[in-house]
Write a structure and sequence with these properties.
CATH topology of the largest domain in chain B: Rossmann fold
Strand order of the largest sheet of chain B: 6-7-8-3-9-10
Oligomer: heterodimer
Number of strands of chain B: 14
Number of domains of chain A: 1
Largest sheet of chain B: 6 strands, mixed
Number of helices of chain A: 11
Radius of gyration of chain B: 24 Å
Distance between the termini of chain B: 32 Å
Structural class of chain A: mainly alpha
Order of helices and strands of chain B: HEEEHEEHEHHHEHEHEEHEHEEHEHH
Distance between the termini of chain A: 32 Å
Shape of chain B: elongated
Shape of chain A: globular
Radius of gyration of chain A: 20 Å
Structural class of chain B: alpha/beta
CATH class of the largest domain in chain B: Alpha Beta
Strand content of chain A: under 5%
Largest sheet of chain A: none
Bound molecules: adenosine-5'-triphosphate, magnesium ion
Amino acid sequence: MNKILAIAKREFASYFHSWIGVLTGVMFLLISGVFFVVLVLNYVKISMNPQQFGLSNFSGISQTQFVFGSFFTNLNVLLLFMVPILTMRSFAEERRQETLEILFTYPLSDFEIVIGKQLGIIWFFEVLMLPLLGYMAVFYWIGGQFDWGPTLLGFLGFWFLGMAYLAAGVFISTLTKHPVVSALGTFSILVLFWIFEWVAGITDGIWGRIFSELSPLDHYKNFSVGILSLQDLVYFLFFFFYFLFLTLRSIETRHWKTS
Amino acid sequence: MSASHSDSLIRFESISKKYGNFQALQNVSFEIREGEIVGFLGPNGAGKTTALRILAGFFPPSSGRVFIRGLDLFKYPHEAKRALGYLPESVNLYPDMKVGEYLRFVAKLKGVPSREQKLHVQNKMELCGLTEVERRLIGRLSKGYRQRVGIAQALISEPSVLVLDEPTTGLDPQQITQIRELIRAIGHHRAVILSTHILPEVSMLCNRVLMIHQGKILASGTVGELEAFLKDREVIHMMIKERAHMEIALRLLRSFPGIEDLKATETSRKEISISFETTCDEDLRLKISKLLVENDISLIEIQRVPLTLEDIFLGLLKQGKFAQRSGGHV
Ligand SMILES: Nc1ncnc2c1ncn2[C@@H]1O[C@H](COP(=O)(O)OP(=O)(O)OP(=O)(O)O)[C@@H](O)[C@H]1O
Ligand SMILES: [Mg+2]
């Protein structure tokens, strides 16, 4: 356990040592902040004069739904760009710098290495999420009416979605020694998953169902409307551990040209 | 503890390694005992790095077994690797970490108890002369200092087996001397194997040599045996005036017993330079010059040069002869 934590800590710290990590963090803060402010202002504008926007009865729209529902939907798009950047360095960069060679000769199991790295990345992702809690506080403070269930579940869903995406990104990162290739690959995979939701939306019958079941976004949606179902939890856990397993397998083979 | 398992700290048992179709190691076996510093000698591409990577547990062999202190490295990697310190050929460390921070990280990974970590790392930094760069970023260190950090990380947790892949390559002469002294100092009570293609380094540092070529062990012996064997070999350089005589001269030379590695090149002054090795105890120069003169070949120069160790070794490796001869010597 100490070893896993040591690896996680190093991975976590490495984000603060690289301009890419810091830049990603700053961009995430900026963009999510802009989303939040725009959504709140929009809400205020509409609520002052609902008729103008063709809404006769505004009370039907919940504040939480309007602000945080759309907020997390926007952040999901942001994840598509952020996750490839956060994960591209995990293994690809180590392979490029050939720093794994020494690591593999220590009394460590591959599992400890992979879990440690994954954990460090998740920590950084969580640090990025902290300000989101701040937005909730701001919202509460400016007198927003909170529907705690959907907000917190939306938060949890976003966390699960992030974990799943990060696991996929780390796996892709083991396949190459070029961080940029890793980032592009991860982005492609995530976009593919993104398309599942769209396909599910325009397909009927069994295929629609299959794509919907496979789509991370469809599973995420339940969280954002305040439904916590076992199915969605199992889906995200399976997604996460499946990619973790693939990462382990990929590390085990070590068919890498190191010279 | 080691005695109860086996006398040798390192046992390499019929190791073969294939990269795809390419056979990088072929049935390599050796043992190394406590207190021995063994030089692993071979030209580029001989398979040194491959063997040492297997020994360090970086990847498994295609066949064969490795024992560290009597423990099968690939059956009990966790336990066996605890006794192992490894310096890779190119020392790549996390450039964004500070020296002290990195070594404490290594101490954690190697399972040094947390109470002892600080002192342990301090000791290793002193031993390797790193105390004054403790707070410097590894990425900003000179090559020599990075090498020392590499050695320091190998030494963490007091491994009884040290595997050093070309520890002095790429350093300036002063650094080389320092690193060699360091290796000599840490070599006691351990089994050390270091790869190199510098022969003098072997005589300076090691008490035993393993010679490897094209994935096979050519010879193994003490440094004394190696030096004794190398002593009576020499090279003769000669120059002849005319190009037209080259063929005849070469044919005549080939008729001498004990002449090897015959080479002829044209110099910039259109003269022909011929060189070859000889193992004869007697001086061949008189016989050769007489014979050439008898054949109307204008010999303008002939001299004896003691072989550099590199020459001999590479020549031997090319012909794969050390194995047979050393058999007679040992
Ligand atoms: N990952 C790899 N994949 C394929 N072939 C490899 C790989 N690593 C090494 N080889 C080949 O195996 C042979 C032995 O390589 P190795 O690096 O072990 O040699 P070496 O003795 O360490 O040489 P040097 O003195 O140059 O370091 C070489 O021909 C090399 O090209
Ligand atoms: Mg090598």
